[in-house]
Write a structure and sequence with these properties.
With 438 residues, this protein is an alpha/beta fold. It has a domain at 68-108 and 233-425: Rossmann fold. The chain has 17 helices and 14 strands. It has helices at 6-9, 50-57, 67-73, 85-91, 112-123, 138-149, 160-165, 167-175, 189-195, 205-218, 231-251, 266-280, 298-301, 344-351, 362-376, 382-401, 419-425, and strands spanning 15-17, 62-64, 81-83, 96-101, 129-134, 153-159, 179-183, 222-224, 257-261, 287-293, 303-308, 317-322, 356-360, 406-411. The chain has a six-stranded mixed beta sheet, with helices on both faces. Strands 7-6-5-8 form a four-stranded parallel beta sheet, with helices on both faces. Strand 5, helix 6 (138-149) and strand 6 (153-159) form a beta-alpha-beta unit. The longest helix is centred in the middle third of the chain and has 21 residues, at 231-251. The chain is globular. The N and C termini lie far apart (49 Å). Bound molecules: pyridoxal-5'-phosphate. Pyridoxal-5'-phosphate (PLP) is lined by residues 109, 111, 138-139, 228, 261-268, 336-337, 381, 383-384, 412-413.
Length: 438
């Protein structure tokens, strides 16, 4: 078998990029939920492993990627940068469209990038179990895979409605050796609060986070792991953008516009942050668009405020765009985008005017996904289809204004395990239908 050692080929970036080193002003710090004073790093130690906390607070521009993590990345990275010639032809646009395809990872999305780094850091400190929450199951399956690579146990609290309705990723988690529980459930005090009132409670990400955090702080050799939102998680995802910059150079491409969908903000940040350095230095006028669902519009309708990351209020207060910790979004199919908050760093960049935010409806994104499937041959995750909807709009706008702009977007995952959602929402287009007008 041909195994690809990244360090021989020099193809994989060997550092993550920390955008905080280049920001003119940092976002307001996280607060202790009880005292409302800036959180001291030691206060996080019962929850996260120390190596992760160090990365969370670091202001170094580049953080080295350990050799064992690079080897694990090399199984599926670098991911392809693809020229979307079929989509361009269909839209009859002068815009050139490219995408970075993260669906080739072991769990079918970008989430393995941070999962592997977090599992590695925990394994270095003698941690035996990582707890976490998962909605639709993308994050849970990524963490279960990563734990299997570094000899750890994954304990996953899965939102009950997904556990029941979307067994695909629950099965994946179990195949990777992870342990899955329906949330809210009876095994934590946070879960019991809801479970005793209603054993069929559908659950939410906020409640599942409370359960996973509680399980981590109450068990020995156990820590909690989060799949998005935090600065260090966004930083781990910059491997996407760092690879993309190199691949763009090979294509002779300089994107005018970079687009990603946002749930907690990590795949968007991962692609965009490495590109943003030049814009921060005033060297170009590149645009960045973050796309979210109309049903969970934290950036376009939420308030920038201090809020908890979970429903019970166990987590630090983060200064972020939020719909409120008690907001329970309607059950849309893009489960990975159903989070009430947004990464503080992405919120900050929106406030600085560097990132534009936009929301699309479920109907719009399924239509965009079908166009993509028929023109590019990949069934996108419903989450990623939000980015595609914005790409299509921008490409049609370029057709009107006859601008030959370069658009790059993140295809954060594939939609094979969301096939039932397509069954319920798809088949709006027939082959040969004309391209949409704008
Ligand atoms: C989880 C997920 C998202 C949303 O999370 P971010 O942290 O905003 O990236 C987007 N796309 C896919 C495929 C996901 O699994």
């Amino acid at each position: 078998m041909k195994r690809y050692d990244s360090r021989e080929t020099g193809y994989l970036p060997e550092h993550f990029y920390n955008i905080k080193a280049d920001l003119p002003e940092l976002p307001p710090p996280p607060l202790n939920p009880l005292t409302r004073q800036p959180l001291r790093p030691e206060e996080l130690e019962p929850v996260f492993c120390r190596g992760f906390i160090q990365q969370e607070i670091s202001l170094e521009r580049f953080i080295p990627i350990p050799g064992r993590v690079l080897e694990a990345y090399a199984q599926y990275r670098p991911t392809p940068l693809v020229y979307a010639s079929g989509l361009r032809k269909y839209l009859d646009t002068p815009a050139r469209i490219f995408y970075k395809y993260e669906g080739v990872g072991p769990a079918g999305s970008h989430k393995t990038n941070t999962a592997l780094m977090q599992a590695y850091l925990a394994s270095q400190e003698g941690i035996e179990t990582l707890t976490t929450e998962t909605g639709a199951g993308q994050w849970g399956s990524a963490l279960a895979y990563a734990c299997s690579q570094f000899g750890l146990q994954a304990r996953v609290f899965m939102v009950r409605s997904s556990y029941r309705q979307k067994p695909g990723r629950r099965i994946m988690i179990q195949l990777f050796g992870g342990q899955v529980e329906e949330s809210p459930g009876p095994s934590t005090a946070s879960g019991r609060k809801y479970y005793q009132e209603n054993p069929e409670h559908p659950g939410s990400l906020g409640i599942a986070i409370s359960e996973a955090v509680e399980a981590a702080i109450s068990q020995p050799a156990t820590r909690y792991s989060l799949g998005s939102v935090l600065d260090a998680v966004l930083m781990h995802q910059t491997i996407i953008g760092l690879e993309a910059i190199k691949q763009c150079q090979e294509f002779g491409l300089e994107p005018d516009l970079v687009i990603g969908c946002v749930g907690g903000g990590s795949n968007f940040a991962g692609l965009c942050f490495p590109f943003m350095t030049k814009r921060l230095q005033g060297k170009n006028g590149q645009r960045f668009i973050a796309v979210e669902p109309e049903a969970c519009p934290s950036l376009t309708a939420g308030r920038l405020q201090y809020d908890h990351g979970d429903s019970v209020g166990l987590t630090p207060l983060l200064y972020m765009h939020s719909l409120g910790k008690d907001f329970v979004p309607p059950p849309i199919h893009a489960g990975g985008l159903r989070y009430h908050g947004m990464a503080p760093l992405v919120s900050h960049l929106v406030r600085m005017g560097l990132v534009e935010a936009r929301a699309y409806s479920q109907k719009q994104i399924f239509a965009a996904a079908e166009i993509f499937l028929k023109t590019e041959g990949i069934l996108p995750a419903p989450e990623s289809a939000h980015a595609i909807a914005a790409v299509i709009d921008e490409a049609l706008e370029a057709r009107k204004s006859k601008k030959e702009l370069h658009i790059l977007f993140n295809l954060s995952g594939h939609g094979f395990l969301d096939i039932n959602a397509y069954d319920q929402n798809g088949r709006k287009f027939q082959p040969g239908d004309p391209a949409p007008a704008r």
